[in-house]
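This section describes the prediction task in plain terms. A model, or a person checking by hand, is given the sequence of a single protein chain and must write out its three-dimensional structure as a string of tokens. No templates, partner chains or ligands are provided. The sample shown here is typical of the held-out split.
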Amino acid sequence: MKKLMVKSQLSNLRTVQMYTRQMLTLAENVFEFDNLPELIDVAYMNKVLLRQGSIAFFKDDVLDTILALPYTNLGRLDVYGRPTTIQVYGKNGYSKILKPEEYVIMYDNNGRYSLYIDILQMAERIALCKRVTDINITHQKTPRLWKTTSDKKKTVEDIVNQIDSCVDGVVVYDSIDIDDLGVVQAPAPYVSDKIDIHIEKEYAEFLRLIGIANLQTQKRERLIKDEMTASLGGTVASRYSRFQPREQAVNMINKKWGLDIKVKFYDGLPNSEKGDEEDVDVPDDVSVYTNNE
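The expected answer:
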């Protein structure tokens, strides 16, 4: 029993970790940067922005290039609560103290807080639903409750193990009485289909949070443009909240160091060959997720 409990807890943990990885990957890769300095690691920059809520851009005099690293506040805050003197640091022990005129801070969203905690909570909720689905499907195997006397318990366990192990053979016991043996079947109701719908709603809420447009409807009729626009209102607001501070920081960086960095919300599909987009007819019974406004 203890071994089964440990296995179940590990499955719960791995399911949470699986959804956390997938959701963080999506949240970190919805923006596309062009003309970034070569030594800026985009993947690391996106991780820091999502987990810490901001990152500092500055020029390293030794490398003679622009870097983007996490930082800690060393001085007083200004009237808007923004840091003044900061200390940037790297994974290899790199550290440098910067004055206000030496850096530009890029925020992940207009709230200037980390979305990491929110995404972790959403991942736990979706993982819980998924584990409930797993258990519900497992219970469709029709659980058996064996009835017998206490002194025949070991005998019945041996018989059950033989059956569940798919071992062909004959088990003979001289002391077992067929009247002492019985089984009660109690299959659980199937609710996984309802939970799957709930998971889709939870995932749609996550996509709205990070600014990815998604359209979910149980109707087969074509939605009119006004209905689609109204349903995407929260997504547009979330997208703007994350895009605007990046754009503002990029403009300040370009002006300060004479660069031509550009940022945009990634709406394209990666292709091995570039070509014109073609309209594709999608059957009514196929669910479509779109991230185009």
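For orientation: Confidence is low (pLDDT under 50) at residues 275-293.
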